[in-house]
Amino acid sequence: MEETLKKTVDKFIELSKNKEILIISHHDTDGITSAAIIARALERQDLSFSIKILKQLEEPTIDKLPEDKILVFLDLGSSHIESLSKLNTETFIIDHHEVDIKKIPENIFIINPHLIDKEEISASGLTYLFVKNLNDNNKDLASLGVIGLVGDFLSQNISKHANELIKDSEVKIKRGLLIYPATRPINKSLEYSTSMFIPGVTGNPNGVFEILQEAGITKGNKPYKSIIELTQEENSKLITGILLRRMKKDNEDIIGNIYLVKFFNKLEDARELSALINACGRLDSPETAIGFCLGNKDCRKRAEEIYASYKQHLIAGLNSIEKLQKIQGKGYLIVNAQDKIKDTIIGTVASILSNSSVYDEGTILIAMAYSKDKIKVSARLTGRKGRNLKEILNIVTNKIGGECGGHSMAAGAIIEKEKGAEFIEAIRKTLDIETVKV
Question: Where do the domains of the chain lie, and which CATH numbers do they carry?
Answer without folding.
Answer: 2-167 (3.90.1640.30), 173-318 (no CATH), 325-437 (3.10.310.40)
